[in-house]
Amino acid sequence: MAITPAYTASATATGDGRAGHSRSSDGVLDLDLSVPKEMGGPGGAHTNPEQLFAAGYAACFHGALKAVARSRKIELTDTAITVDVGIGDNGQGGFGLVVAIEAELPSVDEATARDLLDAAHHVCPYSNATRGNIDVTLTLA
């Protein structure tokens, strides 16, 4: 499958990897990174790759959800998507990720909400990129 990008983001990491610095090519994202305490680092006031992935996935999934609802002429109000990204030993000498997506869709009934959630998971680029590689669970708040 060939994809012609409508937009390409670019960022560079420098320093000591997870304890380094990341900056987007346009300078909008420009931040220090630190290793979480749970992974043996200092934690603190700096972000980490899992937080950045969670934020990106949440925003992308929320956009997909809204697009699916619009295409079905369903009005959504007061929605929120929370994405938890976990990292751990994959049992094969490396690390892996797990993702939990929780949707708040108070303006629709449960059956409609579940249908929209499944449809968004089908069209979201993050979901498509991770499908078969990362365990993703979908829940309603």
Protein described:
With 141 residues, this protein is an alpha+beta fold. Helix 1 (49-71) crosses helix 2. It folds into 2 domains: 1-47, N-terminal domain of TfIIb; 49-140, K homology (KH) domain (GMP Synthetase, Chain A, domain 3). The strands form 2 sheets. A 3-stranded antiparallel beta sheet has the order 1-2-3, with no helix packed on it. Strands 4-5-6 form a 3-stranded mixed beta sheet, with helices on one face. The chain is globular and about 50 Å long. The protein is built from 3 helices and 6 strands. The model has no long low-confidence stretch (mean pLDDT 96). It has helices at residues 49-71, 110-123, 125-130; strands spanning 11-14, 21-24, 30-32, 80-89, 95-104, 135-140.
The CATH first-level class of the largest domain comes to: Alpha Beta
Strand order of the largest sheet: 1-2-3
Tell me the count of domains.
2
Q: Report the average pLDDT across residues.
A: 96
Total of helices: 3
Computed CA radius of gyration, to the nearest angstrom = 17 Å
Structural class: alpha+beta
- For this structure, the CATH topology of the largest domain is GMP Synthetase, Chain A, domain 3
Envelope shape: globular
Give the fraction of residues assigned to helices.
Answer: 25-40%
- Terminal CA distance: 35 Å
| Poorly predicted segments | none
CATH architecture grouping of the largest domain:
2-Layer Sandwich
Beta content comes to: 25-35%
Number of strands: 6
Largest sheet: 3 strands, antiparallel
Query: Any idea what the CATH superfamily of the largest domain is called?
Result: K homology (KH) domain
